[in-house]
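hi!! sorry for the late reply, been swamped w classes. u asked for the two structures so here they r. pasted raw, havent cleaned anything up. first the sequence of the first protein and right below it the tokens
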Amino acid sequence: MSLRMRALNGVPCRVAKPFLARVRKPQTLRRGFAIAAVLLIKPWHARSRRGPVGTEITSGTPATGRVILYLHGGGYVAGPAWTHQELLGRMARATGLRIIATEYRLAPGHPLPMALEDAVLAGGALLARGLAPDRIVLAGDSAGGGLDQATGGTSTRRSNRSIKGPEMRPR
């Protein structure tokens, strides 16, 4: 493991966990998350623009007709999509696809199932724009990963057009 990775792995144990143990208000958590993102994440050279469904991120010339709908993590209470800009820029470059990072309403002001409703609406908006369900890839980290799994099942129950999330396979 590199020196940088050892240092980054130490941050959650020595800084993040004690901070999270003291936090009582979601606004404080969101502010801390944003500050950490600004301080720890180096800028990634990708283009982004605000679109009708969310922030669209591309690197190079994206493949047409396919898109990744990305749902950010943050325990359903923090983590706006812009804090994931480096990850999404790298993902866009590695896959050659356009990534749409959508926002969802955060707890406790908007308890579940509001986040799920927003994720399903984002998927529905992509379908309404003419994308076929098999051309939309659902992705997310942490809480967003849970939302992408739930979004696929929910869209299946609500219509005959289903968006597939990643397959879960045992190691």
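now the second protein. again sequence first, tokens right under
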Amino acid sequence: MRSAVIVVLLFVLGHVAPVLAAPVLMSADWAKEACEAWNRDPVLTDKLVETGWIRNDKGRGFKVMQVFREDCGDQPTAELRVALKDGKALCVYGGAVETKQLDSGADYLMFAETERWQEMGRGDYGPMKAMAFGRLGFKGPKMEAMGNMGPFSNFLLLVGKVESDVSSCPK
């Protein structure tokens, strides 16, 4: 009997623990994992150099991307910073929001309801449809973004690649 209880407990823990360990979507912990996932994606790391996107950093040496879930508030909850390193557009910071003032000519703010982030993360639709139908809010250099729809799509897919918990809002 005792060994049966232990087996059941191990089974439950094995299936529940990974879910509990997932960071809250759009939290600082999620952003750290998204940053690591960014650096494993050759479309993001290579194409954003080829198109010149990474060089528009207003002389700071990095671009800022902030995100949030609209159904959790109206302020950014996670930040990624991307810089040109070793010929690649690498995420050099993922975490809590630190940049107080975004530069609208270089930086990005993106927001959507949780359900919409999940849809984009699954690849149900890309950034053009998301923005055209008001499913993704966006502030930043629009023409620059339009010229980088392929990489922008890959950024949205990171939402689906990085495990996350949507049962609560980021703090």
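hope this helps!! also noticed smth abt the second:
The beta strands are 63-69, 78-85, 88-95, 108-112, 137-139.
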